[in-house]
Amino acid sequence: MRKRYMALGLGILLLFSGCAQQNSEGSQPSYDGTKKMMVDMLKTDEGKEAIHELMTEEDMREEFVMDQDMVKKTIQDTLTSEEGRKYWQEILKDPEFAKTFAQSMQQENEKMLKALMKDPEYQAMLIDVLKDPEMEKSALELMKTKEYREQLNTVMQENFDSPYFQEKLNEMLKKIAEENKASEKEGNNDSKG
Questions:
Q1: How far apart are CA 119 and CA 171, in angstroms?
Q2: 25: helix, strand or coil
Q3: b or e along 160-189 (b: 16 or more beta carbons within 10 Å of the residue's beta carbon)?
Q4: DSSP state of 57
Q5: What does the alpha-carbon distance between residue 187 and residue 101 come to, in Å, rounded to a whole number?
Q6: Residue range 99-156, pLDDT digits in tens
Q7: Cα separation of 14 and 32, whole Å?
Q8: Residue 11 main-chain phi, psi, to 5 deg
Q9: Which of 3, 132, 141, 185 places its Cα 20 to 30 Å from the Cα of 33?
Q10: pTM to 2 decimal places
Q11: Residue 152, burial from CB neighbour count under 10 angstroms (0-12, 13-18, 19+)
Q12: How many Å apart are CA 113 and CA 21, to the nearest integer?
């Protein structure tokens, strides 16, 4: 790795020494000529690899830490621009990216939703939406679909297979049986008395 850095450094040194030689001969290299030579060097596989290695080193990354305000402004400008919206619409069509993106945002979304559920203004808006006749009609139509019924059946089956659910169900059945026995005893006592 050090050899590559040395090669890159040597290349830059040769470039500048070549420029210095041209200066001493009386002809001055133009800015555009020097820029073109540097760009050409950086476009080579060795140049790209050297830059990549530099950027992956921990101390170099620390040096390139950007100003948070600048990053924030750049992201806002990118997201709110027309090109940014088109880009995100396009990239979110990729199922793998959409899945990864959703997973990374899930925790924050859950926090936000929990906070909203406690907000009285949001609760009132949600109730208004649910009371809307169009919303009610759409929900009823959804519940009539085959896919919804299959999904509901799957969820119910998973719940019935769950040991936690079975334990709760057994507790409820025992409680009901005890209440029935108690009411039968009271009924028998009332009829004897």
A1: 35
A2: coil
A3: eeeeeeeeeeeeeeeeeeeeeeeeeeeeee
A4: S
A5: 63
A6: 888 788 888 888 888 888 888 998 888 888 888 888 888 888 888 899 989 998 998 8
A7: 18
A8: -60, -45
A9: 3
A10: 0.28
A11: exposed
A12: 68
